[in-house]
Fold this sequence. Notes:
Helix content of chain A: over 70%
Oligomer: heterodimer
Number of helices of chain A: 23
Amino acid sequence: MExxxxxxxxxxxxxxxxxxxxxxxxxxxxxxxxxxxxxxIGIHYGLLTTDLLQALPQRVFGIMANDTLLAIPFFTFxxxxxxxxxxxxxxxxxxxxxxxxxxGGLAYAVIFVGALLAATTGVVAASVISxxxxxxxxxxxxxxxxxxxxxxxxxxxxxxQIIPPSLVLIVMADQLGRSVGDMYAGAFIPGIMLACLYAGxxxxxxxxxxxxxxxxxxxxxxxxxxxxxxRVLFSLIPPLVLIFLVLGTIFxxxxxxxxxxxxxxxxxxxxxxxxxxxxxxLLRQALDTTAKLSSFVIFILVGSTVFSLVFRGVNGDLWxxxxxxxxxxxxxxxxxxxxxxxxxxxxxxxxxxxxxxxIPLLGPVAEKLGxxxxxxxxxxxxxxxxxxxxxxxxxxxxxxRSVAPDREFIDKITGxxxxxxxxxxxxxxxxxxxxxxxxxxxxxxxxxxMVLHSLETTNVDINKIQIEMPADEGGxxxxxxxxxxxxxxxxxTAPSDDNQRK
Amino acid sequence: xxxxxxxxxxxxxxxxxxxxxxxxAVLASVIVSTVNxxxxxxxxxxxxxxxxxxxxxFDAVFLLCSGYTLLKxxxxxxxxxxxxxxxxxxxWIDIIGTVFFLLPMAIAIMWMSWPVFMDSWIEQESSSNAxxxxxxPVKLLIPVxxxxxxxxxxxxxxxxxxxxxxxxxxxxxKQHSHGAPPPExxxxx
Lengths: 502, 189
């Protein structure tokens, strides 16, 4: 028994992890407990020294001093302010009027606005909920196929996962030890392409089944001509300003993602103030949600840090590496297995759990196989985006379900009895988009240039940043190197993943 | 039991207070960070103290709000399996999880981080960056944060047991989790 445990610590830890996660108690605490528990067993059998666990407070402090993670509350806060202050509503309304006369127009509007919102907020819930609240009733009113309507809203909402400034990419970059700016640049083209593929699907549907996505009838077009044009310009300006403020400055190398996030959050506050939509209640709600989100996200990170500290201590990383490098087919074999694995895992885990538990294990192996980590990250990002809309567990589907009418209702405008949207319709509607998503994964694997091209062109800017402002980006951060020094002194036994960052 | 429920009520009130107070640090952090960035690009002035203040504030938010987040039941859980069980079984899961997962881990980290704070306090350790901030306040946040989390764990434990005994209504009635996020809680990404 003893022999068995000593020889198989890492696999046993992993099995215990699965049990603990599925147990149904908050993941963060289960993870940390699992790490500590096996740490004690390891110490008992002489596999680990107590030094390892004493390194824990330093590890927690390392998370605390990580500047990049600040972007998470900033972008969340910005998204919440924008959503609650009604910018998304204005946009959808106006763009819907613009595209309305076209067959499938409302669906295009949803995709377009989804991409635009993605580029400003990076928060899936906000996108799906506002589009579900605003566009879905209009689509239902004018006879859109319920499955198409639900699918297009859920899918466009998840664009926030992959189009910068997504939280997913921030966490991914942090875990893979790459710069967030590079990750953003790499994800840009695949993100835009996805939006185009969605639109392509809508086009095919309008050709093969014209009834599924009719044009808006004339009486539903309240705005026309110059007035419409004015409204379009006016409602497009705020998001465009924000996109420049956030993404433009990051891409041009002027600002770090953290600064971009802060500027974006301030920008959102100012816009809401100008539109006279900012009140104390809205502000407090946004702060409250942001604080709770930050707490649970960072606590998952703390939990997985405890876990991986011990997992590495018992050579779990070598075990995983051995498992994955012994796969047939080298790079391609590895990529296929990893993609299948994260696709299946995404049924059970949500993004943060996947990113904090699985990515740190996969990253080093990928690097050893000569895989570019930016490309790898974007690939996994697209893959995990699928998990947001995959029935029956996808988050986006839940959000849509929570705002879609589930039984017959009397339409406010037409006064007609309108059928609701069943859960089955939401699930079926998502499937074509899941397929598109998988096609995109294949495309990213086949054409790495899609991701890497943008990287080469921005390299110059990245270098410039390092010279101009040694305080941030790419390894010059004084506060971070300071922590690393502390860490090196304090934990000679633990191979620190933070050290690999540079 | 009535006494314990009163203790639980006090802990809830404390963490509610702290949560609602500390979340303003999010706004402070946004403002500090915006001002830092603007000053750096406009007149090329950067101060390490202000840069460090950004993450000091954020650390205060996520650590001190951990108890508050637990109180609101918003730490993410996977309830694909557990979601199918009865409320009683789920309550048992929470009790077992609190006793075996949460409390040992929170108390252990609190315990281990205290000497780290003490060292920093005695040495009056300050940041190695020129003009950086003094370190002990941020190191104090670790034990305090995990303390708030531990006592909230105890409070949740009391409420769960009281629920099983039929003394109070279900404390986790508005479950926020992987299963069904309520429309008003757009916490996910």
